[in-house]
Specification:
The protein contains ten helices and nine strands. With 248 residues, it is of the alpha/beta class. Strands 3-2-1-4-5-9-8 form a seven-stranded mixed β-sheet. Strands 6-7 form a two-stranded antiparallel sheet. Helix 2 runs parallel beside helix 5 and helix 6 packs parallel to helix 8. It is globular and about 45 Å long.
Length: 248
């Protein structure tokens, strides 16, 4: 399998917008991902609740980060292929999952030529798509690699949350934004794309997926114990949006 190196991507002007941020965050992110309330007690339980039975299934973890989802899936009997564009995240994921999953460095915004058509039962992509501008091509690739029936489960920043956070002049315009993350011990400015709900859902439907469920998470009781103020806020206004779609 031949993959473009990070230096090669940079020379062609295709460096993913959040790569530098995640390289800077990698170790701190990995050390906190299992206990940070927004991840461990809010987004992850909601996203996992949308998964079908994973035992014996082949799952693509698209944007695996330090491997928390890949490990969860493998521990429950799934055959996991995990991808991430960040070399540091790939290294951390490999350390976490060992031989339980296959972890590869790859940019999911590019064609995944090394993955054959119809070879996965589930594609999972947690809090990754916000850093990509072209969802149409990504959803087409996810549709291609899924068997029939197959499922795509993904989580993103809620369009309403982004609208309230960035207060853009035009809600309907997709635009690049940036926010300083302070929840992982070191302040890092992380770029992403803010988009309206239609721009999130229509490329999914146009790729051929059937929308099965939309979940606007409510923080768990564990979240309340760890971060009462954050719990009250997220109990009244959205933070993330979790979606399950099917290839039938």
């Amino acid at each position: 399998m031949r993959q473009k190196s990070i230096s090669g991507l940079k020379s062609m002007g295709q460096l993913p917008i959040a790569l530098a941020a995640y390289e800077a965050l990698a170790e701190a992110y990995a050390s906190r991902i299992d206990t940070k309330p927004h991840n461990a007690y809010y987004e992850r339980p909601a996203t996992l609740s949308l998964l079908p039975e994973v035992k014996g299934k082949r799952v693509l973890d698209a944007g695996c980060g330090p491997g928390a989802y890949a490990e969860w899936l493998a521990d429950r009997g799934a055959e996991v292929v995990a991808l991430d564009v960040s070399p540091k995240m790939v290294e951390l994921a490999k350390k976490r999952v060992g031989t339980k999953a296959t972890v590869l460095q790859a940019d999911i915004s590019q064609p995944l030529h090394f993955l054959q058509d119809g070879t996965f039962d589930i594609v999972l992509s947690a809090l990754v798509l916000d850093h990509l501008s072209d969802w149409a091509s990504v959803f087409r690739e996810f549709f291609r690699v899924l068997a029939r029936p197959g499922y795509l489960i993904f989580s993103i920043s809620h369009p309403m949350a982004d609208f309230l956070l960035y207060t853009p002049e035009n809600y309907f315009q997709t635009e690049r934004v940036e926010w300083e993350w302070r929840g992982f011990g070191i302040p890092v400015r992380v770029p992403a794309y803010r988009r309206p709900l239609g721009a999130a859902l229509n490329p999914l439907l146009e790729a051929g997926f059937v929308l099965e469920r939309i979940l606007e998470p409510i923080p768990t009781e564990q979240f309340k114990q760890e971060d009462p103020e954050g719990y009250e806020q997220l109990s009244r206004r959205p933070g993330f949006l979790c979606i399950r779609a099917a290839k039938r």
